[in-house]
Design brief:
By secondary structure, the chain is an alpha/beta fold. The chain is built from ten helices and 23 strands. The chain binds S-adenosylmethionine (SAM). S-adenosylmethionine binds next to helix 6 and strand 18.
Length: 482
């Protein structure tokens, strides 16, 4: 197949080394990059353009919204010729862009991206890439969704997800196919309540750091987000509305949720007020309006109580698979001291607790540490201790108190461990490190640092926690070899 070429600029195309920001270009998509965008090459120099909303084999007309020296980003405006691989989408959903790829192909791409990151970024070799474990459910698997309020082209309120690569455009949704029917009932009830009240979305484009968007130009333009979280095993739901600061009448909000859900189903209703400029549901002051501030969930036979901002794996069923893989790769014999770093509610360590002598967890968020301690107590696990603080700073002191760990499980955020945390880990010299990663590119960099210091990467197992999306989870085992 021929390479990409410009449409409108015609003969100019060959002469242009790269398109300017704002240009419309015709592109052929060659592959998928980590992060989910299609990759096209432009002009004779093969300038790389990452294209949102396209898959390999598509020919698209795309709008370039960011152009740098080495590469650009564009979003698909029109599908000119669909890839032979494309399948019909189940329903429009900005959060499920890979639904146009057959599921088997999604798995292949994810596995290949893990391999590629480890080899190309990490320069790693000699490890066993185990077959990716597919998800138990391909749809309606998420236990948490974060919705945004916005407005449509007529200015009417919508509640949904951001369009790909569009910070200020929200696509309304009535049935999110990644979440359960229960979650969707709550979503529709809140959307109807908000529209009925004449409330509108906050004005995303108004703010500056000196004058935050939270100072509303219009007293009714207050709505930022709705976070819905579900205890899949407990059959309960927690709803948190995020608005800009100031007073707002919320009796109808609670009543709408009560009308949509049975009494037993509605676990808690919360309200956060935030003046942050960033598009985030974190931070701000949170108030409990109804029920409990914690959602109960069962995982691996254990009960956890999840606070409104605590991290919890978003695919409950696949979290059990992920943790089982971590257990397998840890090769536990029963007598180990296991450190669980970046432990959140302690779920990995507690899941593995019956197979080890002692569990020690470290987590930055104090509220999560309190949750981990309570989960240990409520589940009758006495040989688990949790500390609050930065993993790399606490490791030395924890080592002195508990001794050298046989196995360390790490599960850092997307940014990975980073150089200093890797150094701290190397300094305590565990025989085995099991790295649970939601970003193979940072895993690759961290694993490479560990291999330079005498570890060997042995096995890597991708686990698909997020069908229809580009998100990749995997577990890697590293062993001290010198
Ligand atoms: C991907 S989550 C994993 C949580 C847990 N292992 C699980 O499976 O639910 C990462 C966790 O790391 C915590 N965290 C972030 N930076 C940290 C740091 N420097 N030290 C310790 N914990 C940190 C976050 O608060 C979050 O709970």
């Amino acid at each position: 197949m021929s390479g990409p070429r410009t449409s409108d600029q015609g003969a100019l195309a060959g002469a242009l080394a790269r398109p300017a920001r704002g240009a419309e270009v015709e592109l052929f998509i060659e592959s998928l990059a980590y992060g989910g965008e299609g990759v096209a090459r432009y002009g004779e120099g093969g300038y790389v353009i990452f294209v949102a909303g396209a898959i390999p084999g598509d020919r698209v007309r795309a709008h370039v919204y960011k152009a740098k020296r080495a590469y650009a980003h564009a979003r698909t405006l029109q599908l000119l010729e669909p890839s032979p691989e494309r399948i019909a989408p189940v329903a429009p959903h900005p959060g499920a862009p890979w639904q146009v790829l057959p599921y088997e192909r999604q798995l292949e791409v994810k596995s290949a991206q893990v391999q590629e990151a480890l080899v190309r970024i990490g320069g790693l070799a000699g490890f066993e890439l185990q077959p990716i474990l597919p998800a138990a459910e391909r749809w309606r698997y998420r236990n948490k969704i974060e919705l945004s309020f916005g407005s449509d082209e007529q200015g009417a309120l919508v509640l949904g997800f951001h369009a790909p690569a569009r910070w200020n455009r929200v696509v309304g949704i009535e049935d999110c196919l990644l979440a359960s029917e229960r979650v969707n009932r709550a979503l529709r009830a809140v959307a109807a309540w908000a529209a009925g009240q004449g409330l509108r979305a906050w004005q995303r484009s108004v703010g500056t750091p000196a004058q935050p968007a939270a100072v509303p130009a219009d007293g009714r333009a207050r709505l930022r987000n709705l976070v819905l979280r579900e205890g899949r095993r407990s059959g309960t739901l927690q709803a948190r509305l995020v608005t800009t600061p100031g007073e707002i009448e919320l009796a109808g909000f609670i009543a709408a949720l009560q009308g949509a859900l049975g009494e037993e189903e509605l676990s808690g209703v919360l309200w956060s007020r935030s003046d942050r400029l960033a598009e985030t549901t974190a931070g701000g002051a949170t108030e409990l309006l109804h029920g409990s501030s914690e959602l109960s969930e069962r995982l691996g036979g254990l009960t956890f109580r999840i606070g409104p901002e605590a991290f919890f794996q978003t695919n409950t069923e696949m979290a059990e698979v992920l943790y089982s893989v971590a257990g397998e790769l840890a090769q536990l014999q029963g007598g180990e001291l296991l450190f669980d770093l970046y432990c959140g509610l302690g779920s990995i360590g507690l899941f593995l607790a019956e197979r080890v002598r002692e569990v020690v967890g470290i987590e930055l968020e104090e509220s999560a540490v309190a949750g981990a301690r309570r989960a240990a107590a409520e589940n009758g696990i006495e040989h688990a201790t949790f500390y609050a603080g930065e993993a790399r700073r606490l490791l030395g002191a924890v080592l002195e108190r508990h001794g050298r760990p046989d196995v360390v499980v790490v599960d850092p955020p997307r940014a990975g461990l980073g150089r200093r945390a890797v150094e701290a880990l190397i300094a305590i010299a565990p025989a085995r490190v099991v790295y649970v990663s939601c970003n193979p590119t940072t895993l690759a960099a961290d694993a490479a640092r560990m291999c330079e210091a005498g570890y060997a990467l042995r096995q890597v197992r991708p686990v698909d926690m997020f069908p229809q999306t580009h998100h990749i989870e995997c577990v890697a085992a590293l062993e001290r070899s010198s």
